[in-house]
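User: Can you help me understand a structure? I only have the sequence.
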Amino acid sequence: MTFARMQTRILDLFQRRASPAYVVLLATSIFLFDTWSPLHFAVAVLYIVVIVLATLWFKRVGILRTATLCASLTCLSFIITHGPDPDGSAAARTLISLAAIAITTMLALLNIATRERLIAVEKEKNNLARFFPPTIVEQIATNDIALSTTRYEPAAVLFVDMIGFTKFCSVMQPQDVIAMLRESLCTLSASVFEHHGTVDKFTGDGLIAVFGLPVSNDLSATNSVLCALTMQARLQTWNDARAATGQEAVAIAIGIHYGDVVLGDVGCESRLELTVLGDTVNVASRVENHCREAKASILITDAVVRRMQSEGSEGTVRRFTDWGLHTIRGHSDAIRLFAIPRNAVSSID
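Assistant: Let's start by predicting it. Here is the structure, written out as tokens:
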């Protein structure tokens, strides 16, 4: 059990019993003991126990009020006990008590700030974990990487979409469609994370993934292609399991392009979304759509191939067949495409 979790459990235990009356009762007891006790030492130092308990029970305002109460009772006890003409040692003891109260209060407030920071970081990590792999989540949280800073950087963009999704919707019950989508998208996103990619967004029956952002990677193109091969291999395993229960096989199309993209927040102030934009994204989308016409399970552009060659991934490049120049919808210039046919069996290795 981590220290933060242990602290949270202790805090929950005390909060269930929290009451301002306990603080007042304990502070009053210390005041009475400090005022009428014959012992000559800084009894008021015991007020730090009250402040420590207040740290477990209250927020900043409650702690400050508790500290003010303790300091006031310390001064009142000093006046009642020693009157207008105290000796030097009594004044010194009182100053020590006040200093202890002040120091404990400062530490208590710092403890609250640290605890709130840990909670905020944990929430941020949980939120980022929906879109980023664990390694990137740690880098973002540890190095305080500014995701909201708009920038123009190279990246590999992968589009994956289910083929014939409309047909499934027309013959399956709604709850079965959602269950199938959740299972397939969970598998697809897990493949993205395993290859150091990020999920830009889910598109209903597919997703958009980016490799090389927001943290740069020297193998972004290679990782994107290995991710696509993993997706197809795991899809085959999933389809085998579906066939065993009499369910129809699912097919997906994957398109990948490499180039410069714009990374930034889009939307309105009430709902912003970190996403990638630009011609690279559009081409990747068109390449994925072209898989249907080309009867390919994976299509990658020559830009991806060139980048993979510069990354030293010649072996992975050789797994693809050069299908020559193709004109894709929405793009005036022909693009050289490399493919794995739809009937080919992909493997992860």
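Now, to help you interpret it: The chain is about 55% helix and 20% strand. The chain has a mean pLDDT of 81. Let me know which part you'd like to focus on.
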